[in-house]
Write a structure and sequence with these properties.
The structure is a single chain. The protein is α+β, with helices and mostly antiparallel strands. The longest helix is centred in the last third of the chain and has 23 residues, at 59-81. The chain has one domain. The strands form two sheets. The protein has a three-stranded antiparallel β-sheet. The protein contains two helices and five strands, in the order αβββββα. Bound molecules: zinc ion (ZN). Zinc ion (ZN) binds at residues 32, 34-35, 37, 57-58, 60-61.
Length: 83
C-alpha cells in the first residue's frame, strides 16, 4: 500500500452521510456545516440538488448568510444609483 501523505492539512474534508446524519429518539437529525450543531431535518431548508435534499446549513445559518449578502447587494445597488 502506498502512503504519500505530506501533512494531511491540504486534504479537503468531505463528510460521509453517516457523519452528518443521525436519528435521535426517532427524529432525523443533521449536523450543520456552519455552526456544527445537530438539528432536526425540519430545521433545514430543502434543496433538491443536494444528495439528501437538504441544505448543508441549518435555517438559522442560511438566514444569517442570506441577510448578509442581501445587505451587501443593497449597498452595492445604492452605490450604483448614487444615493
Ligand atoms: Zn447552523
Amino acid at each position: 500500500m502506498k502512503h504519500n501523505r505530506k501533512d494531511g492539512k491540504s486534504v479537503k474534508k468531505y463528510y460521509k452521510y453517516q457523519q452528518i446524519h443521525r436519528v435521535v429518539d426517532g427524529v432525523k437529525k443533521k449536523r450543520c456545516r456552519r455552526c456544527s450543531k445537530w438539528k432536526a431535518e425540519s430545521m433545514y431548508y430543502k434543496r433538491r440538488r443536494n444528495k439528501d435534499g437538504l441544505y448543508v446549513w441549518c435555517k438559522e445559518c442560511a438566514n444569517k448568510a442570506t441577510n448578509k449578502s442581501r445587505k451587501q447587494r443593497l449597498l452595492a445597488a445604492r452605490k450604483q444609483e448614487g444615493i
